[in-house]
Amino acid sequence: MISATAWRESLFKALANRSFLVGLLITGTVALMAALSFFWTPYAVGTFDIAGKLKPPSVAHWLGTDHFGRDILSMIMVGSRNSIAVAFVSVMIGAGVGVPLGLWAAARGGIIDELLMRFNDLVFAFPALLSAVLITAVFGPGAINAIIAIGIFNVPVFARVARGAALSLWPREYILAARASGKGAARITVEHILPNMTNLLIVQGTIQFSLGILAEAGLSYVGLGSQPPMPSWGRMLFEAQTMISIAPHMAVFPGLAIVFTVLGLNLLGDGLRDVLDPKLQQVR
Amino acid sequence: MTLLEVRKLSLRIGPVETLKGIDLAVNAGEIRALVGESGSGKSLTALSIMKLLPAGAVPAGQIHFNGRDIMAASEAEMCGLRGNDIGMVFQEPMTALNPVKTIGEQVSEGIRLHTGASRAIAEERTRRILDRVGLPSSKFPLDRYPHELSGGQRQRVVIAIACALKPKLLIADEPTTALDVVLQAQILDLLQSLVDEEKMGLLLISHDLAVVADIAHSITVLRHGEVMDSGDTTRILTEQTHPYTRQLAQASMHIPERTTPRYRPPHDALLSVRNLGRSYRGQRAGLFSRHEDTRAVDDVSFDLQPGQSMALVGRSGCGKSTLARMILALDKPSRGEIRFSSQRIDQLDEIALRPIRQNMQVVFQDPYGSFNPRHKAERLVSEPLYLLDRPLSAAEKRERVDRSLERVGIAPKDRGKYPHEFSGGQRQRLAIARAIITEPKLIVADEPVSALDVSIRAQILDLFADLNGRLGIAYLFITHNLSVARAVTDTVMVMADGQIVEHGRTEDVLRHPQSEAGRALVEASPDLHKALARRIGEQG
Amino acid sequence: MLVYASKRILIGIVTLLAASIVVFSILEVVPGDPARLMLGMNATDDAVRTLQEQMGLNQPLLERYFRWLGGLLTGDFGRSFTYSVPVISLIAERIAVSLPLALISLALSTAIAIPVGVFSASRRGSIADTASMGVAQIGVAIPNFWFALLLVYVFAVVLRLVPAGGFPGWNAGVWLGLKSLILPSIALALPQAAILARVTRSALLDVLGEDYIRTARAKGLTRRRVLYDHALRNAFIPVLTILGLQFAFLLAGTIIIENVFYLPGLGRLVFQAITQRDLIVVEGVVMLLVATVIVVNLLVDLSYAIVDPRLRSRS
Questions:
Q1: Is the CB of A180 less than 8 angstroms away from the CB of B364?
Q2: Which of B78, B312, B444, C10 is deepest in the core (most CB within 10 A)?
Q3: Measuring CA to CA, how many Å separate A54 from each of A51, A57, A59, A63, C153?
């Protein structure tokens, strides 16, 4: 979309932005760790070693072992896949449903727009946890519940962002010029509206991704997310809770993994916003 | 007595030197105009005097106000001066007032701060100053909020804030640029009478010589952060010794050469509008009251001949843009009909409109908002080719784009650039290139030069005149600026409150306006010719 | 004002109705017979029939919905299947824990966040600003239940200052009750405060860039006075919005945190109900929480009008 020089300029600006750089490094590390876990982990996560249970960090087990003697580092590595997958798919659901809805409402206005706003109000009244409670109550627990619950909550977020951005773009003179060139609402939306809000959507996507990681951890902590034997950060914390007085390391490291990942994504989002949003670039 | 003296004022923002050794003086009771095009450093000069520069701006040089050294003054001393001895009025009245505070609070705040007056006394003074600026408290009680006032009224509140304590110096930074000509004349009048009454010094900043020619005692001309010319207004304008001053003055009075339009009999009107109306559903006043409809356009009828250039003039909010949008089929009329080349177009759907749209294109005001920032010039200019019945090959498309670019004076090799790589004037040329690419019969231009500096404005007006002569394109030129109307149009329609109140040959209407709205516009329009004539007359 | 307020209230009521339909229909889409689902596969047909009758499952759908809705309005949430008591009495008992917890956390996070945000904005770029925003950046990334675990470890396990969990009940004395809510509310409040402080700061900085701030400065007001007299009230609107949205997260957080501290609140109730398949209880609790979120957001909408005169005069 953008010329090579403009790309280079943005890239340069991005790398000069400390938040972006640190965020990119952190998220890159987490992504690599998740990818690596498909091929190699220090120990297999399925093997129990009751004799070596609840060991604090050591040379053999960098982050120690849990109450079944499983290696915590390996569990965290494999668990990252779960967090990333759930958060990613829910962002995709949110953006995939929400963005078209928002664009449609902005293009049509009137009753359609009003209906969308009321739909947003309704969905906002169901925090992901409550949706997950309802879904689990009916269908029983599972990782898919977390995805659906978080995904549903993302829909109005993206719808609202897309609608707001589109509404601010529609009165622009270049949109009027496109209309004077005979282009219909759908075509204008694809050619002019959507490309001019990609930055915003990327930033929002990053934010929702990090919220998704947090929400997934919360849901698996209370047993509404992914189920054993698949390791997940939230459930590792749940299991650590009963051992807190004898094996605090079981609680510390999965939590740090969550903080590290979410912090990285937030920094990345902040950096992207500074780099991509021309309004914020102005020095005040 | 010299009230304000600025000597060798320089300003750095990062690596850029934005002001380069500016000298400037204002005497008590004097109106000093500071004139320059965008980027000349006018506003930064004003903010330097107030010491309200943006973070990172480093000033150097000397500023003395009323015997005090401003450069050495502490922030506390400046707070004592600002609003008390130096008042300031800003360009944009719509955003200059705090939306959550009443106008009474905002005016009396400064009075109480500087005089320590009680609430009652401050409110009394507030009432007096608001009354003085034309907002009597019988009609504008102190508990009004800014959003309940119009732009002109808000600017009066800003002036009241600045003048509440009868400052020795008033700085007005483009105080009328965001207002229409009639409001502009009223605000300038108000400023002049305040200066006369209180023997204030006024530093009046403007981008247009014509605006200040009438009221300024002296003028300083700025360009790229340097003083080009400075002195008594009459001398500056009559002698025009400095080439840049001459250039500004000429650009301000510029009238393009035009071939006289051929007269056409009225039966083959290109555009024919009959009894056109557009109502908007208004806000409800109360829970159970009905919607009050507002008529933006009300019973408008006129004809436009092929090749004719017609101006539609009127104050802001008179309905001219709504009318333009209906003609362009971007908005549906509530009543009446529009015919283009005898075909009725106001009820057509998008597909049926395609051949019409080919022959009717548009140029907008804002050279920055007119283009999708993510597309290159070629794609931007070729957009209306979408209207053609058969899609063009890439080569054909490029040929049409190049021809169109050449016609507006842009090198075809620039077709690969993005809009931000063009200057404001070039962008307006691009907008025109886009409008003429389908070789339309009519271009509707909505304030196409009002966002441009005067020298660039003159060039764009030349281009409009040239295309009218060469390609025979008819124009509907929407503007609030009568000198623009005079420059490129054959006939003028004056619009007021949604209706056409006057219609005639441009020369006739501008010289002898018949309607009240027409007279108001003509009288209020800044006119360098008239200002010059008056000054020469005064000199004898 | 009247037009704005009545429109918002109307929207709130419609949203509540729509939410009730959503919650109600969740029970209806249960695969198979809810009564059998609740009783399990080994239940006798008689038992299932009795429960069906008790739940009114043999009546037409619409009638059941309106009866349920009417029940909600009169405080009749149905009878719990496992506890054999009215759901409303279960909720009443549990809400005595959850509501104080949510309110204390909300108050705590606001009391921390707003001063920090204002202080940071007023000293933009200073070491104090950078440090507090750095802490906030990390605070936003901390899951409250993990923070709760760490607090339990430090203050209950190592220092033994407070109980690790459990709730003595308000009958045991207000102070003992409050004491067991200290750690949970800190765990809930601090991550929330981090978000709110960031929003407060950026909202203030946005406002400080507005034209009317310059007008106020040109009047002779000091930076400080401009911040407190002009900027703060304008920045309040985005802060209120976030506060409203946060309330939903706070409720969700309350439910999760109750599990860390073994607090007998709505969260424990709802998770026990899920394990015991006590759908009526789940339905009642969820509906109550959803209604709370809707009402809080309605209150936020109405308070906009108090801050912003433009909303008051416009319909």
A1: no
A2: B312
A3: 9, 9, 15, 11, 16
Q: A130–C289: do the CB atoms touch at under 8 Å? A: yes
Q: Which residues of B touch A (CB under 8 A)?
A: 54-56, 325, 328, 330, 350, 353-354, 357, 360-362, 364-366, 369-374, 376, 383-384, 386-387, 418, 431, 434
Q: How far apart are the first and last CA of chain C?
A: 7
Put simply, whether B292 touches C (Cβ < 8 Å) is no
Interface with chain C: mutation pick from B98, B108, B157, B163, highest number of C CBs within 10 Å: B98
The alpha-carbon gap from A36 to the nearest alpha carbon of chain C, in Å, equals 24
Whether B274 and B249 have beta carbons less than 8 Å apart is answered as no
Superfamily of domain A12-34+64-283: MetI-like (1.10.3720.10)
And the tokens for A86?
A: 């759930």
Half-sphere exposure of C125 (CA within 13 A, CB side): 5
Write the pLDDT tens digit of every residue in B354-397. Answer: 999 999 999 988 777 889 988 999 999 999 999 988 889 999 99
* Residue C233 sits at the chain B interface (C-beta within 8 Å): yes
**Same-fold call for B1-84+207-252 versus B298-359+441-540:** yes
Q: State pLDDT tens for residues C265-294.
A: 998 899 888 888 888 888 899 999 999 999
pLDDT digits (tens, 9 = 90+) for A107-147: 998 899 999 889 988 998 888 888 888 888 778 788 888 89
Asked if residue C50 belongs to a domain, the reply is yes
Minimal C-alpha gap between A5 and chain C (Å)? 31
- Give B79 to chain C, closest Cα distance, Å: 4
Rounded to 5 degrees, what are φ and ψ at B302? -170, 165
Q: Which of B54, B357, B373 sits opposite A181 (nearest CB)?
A: B357
Of the candidates B40, B449, B374, B499, which has an alpha carbon nearest to the alpha carbon of residue B225? Answer: B40
Q: Is A240 left (phi over 0), alpha (psi -120 to 50) or beta?
A: alpha
| Superfamily the domain B1-84+207-252 falls into | P-loop containing nucleotide triphosphate hydrolases (3.40.50.300)
Same domain, C98 and C69: no
3-state DSSP percent of chain B in helix, strand and coil, to 5? 40, 25, 35
- Is B114's CB within 8 Å of C220's CB? yes
CATH class for the domain made up of B298-359+441-540: alpha beta
Tell me the residue range of the domain where C168 lies: 87-314
Per-residue HEC secondary structure of A96-112 comes to HHHHHHHHHHHHHCHHH
* C135 and A CB contact within 8 Å: no
Same domain? C66 vs C94: no
Taking the C-alpha atoms of B189, B193, B194 and B195 in order, what is their torsion angle to the nearest 10 degrees?
110
